[in-house]
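Here we describe the complex-level prediction in full. Unlike the single-chain runs in Section 2.1, the two entities below were treated as one system.
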Amino acid sequence: NAGVTQTPKFQVLKTGQSMTLQCAQDMNHNSMYWYRQDPGMGLRLIYYSASEGTTDKGEVPNGYNVSRLNKREFSLRLESAAPSQTSVYFCASSEARADTQYFGPGTRLTVL
Amino acid sequence: DAKTTQPPSMDCAEGRAANLPCNHSTISGNEYVYWYRQIHSQGPQYIIHGLKNNETNEMASLIITEDRKSSTLILPHATLRDTAVYYCIVKDPGTYKYIFGTGTRLKVLA
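The structure predicted for the assembly as a whole is:
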């Protein structure tokens, strides 16, 4: 039981490049989330998926898109990366919205 | 904005109890208090949560004041591995969103 896994662990992009961050959970959870954490700050919600087939914006969705591929997988895409998107990205999942969220190990992204 | 206020940092001697305070004076009646911690930039780890009664699990105890305007997380016998940033979060069970503040950086000293 791996919990929440994220790939890649590290990534360096040039401004304007695109990439997709992958997240998978093996806990059969319905809800999944993407957060970003900037240095010295708390986490901020980018997008979430309440259940398979649905996605909604969080606090800071601009510059990102998401796909809930199936119940297990939730990906985050940066279409045209900007230096302001340099951050650590965390994926999380929960059984339902009222439940405890479980976090992955994070992806450290640097945009030059 | 976070609905909680926490001290930015605290120290605790190894083996002693660590008491981490949190103020949430604007908490609503149906909002829960959650505690997470983040060790060394890893993903946040769930610790405990409660509504109005005190709660205890294998990791910690949560004491919530009767008026629910503040709470204290207690790590009964802190170890060096408990050094982390601790986040107190107030969450409405009807929403998906945790609002993380900047937390308390706890340093456990040998």
